[in-house]
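User: Continuing from earlier, I have the next pair ready.

Assistant: Great, send them over.

User: Here they are, in order.

Assistant: Folding the first of the pair now:
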Amino acid sequence: EGFRETFGAVHVDTLNCMVSLAMVLRDRGRLGEAEALLREGLSGRRELFGDAHLSTLSVMRSLAVLLDSMGQEEDAIAAYREVCACAINLLGIGHPQTLTV
């Protein structure tokens, strides 16, 4: 909350903090909270950077992995498809990061 108050909700430092906290929550098994923060962080990155940015792509992939680990198969598949499409558009089909999605 301190970052939001200081920098605002859609600031790179606030968004980085959100994603970092989401990863800690995920590691502690608090998956629902992690999902909410990743979704909020993704929304902010889209607003700040757009879809065609590596930072946005990274959070999209983290959300897809989390959804998969939560057993939300349909949502995970949709998220992975979006990650693949964005990676191909941003990096190209043969880029190593695209191939690891």
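And the other member of the pair:
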Amino acid sequence: RDLIPMGFSPGSLFQPELLVIVTGTFFAAVADRGVLHDVEGILGGVWHVLPIIGIGLFFRLVGVFAATLLTLRSRGRGCDTVMQDALFCFLSTLPR
């Protein structure tokens, strides 16, 4: 169920990601310096995951590109559309 419906389009006016950012900003503004430092220390470990995510996305792109090349004939497509097809398929697999 939408928190605040847009009315002119399906979906909510406020996205969950935006609410998380706003909540974090307000928490940082009112929290004691010690508590904020502890929270930053705990959440600082999350940044070590980003290289792993980057490597996973790179190999996903390589796999989509290879699959696009290997299925050219069966899809009835030419070599001139490989890059567009591969990028479209890659972008459609990413979470929003």
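Worth noting for the second one:
Residues 30 and 65 are 48 Å apart (CA to CA). The two ends are 18 Å apart (CA to CA).
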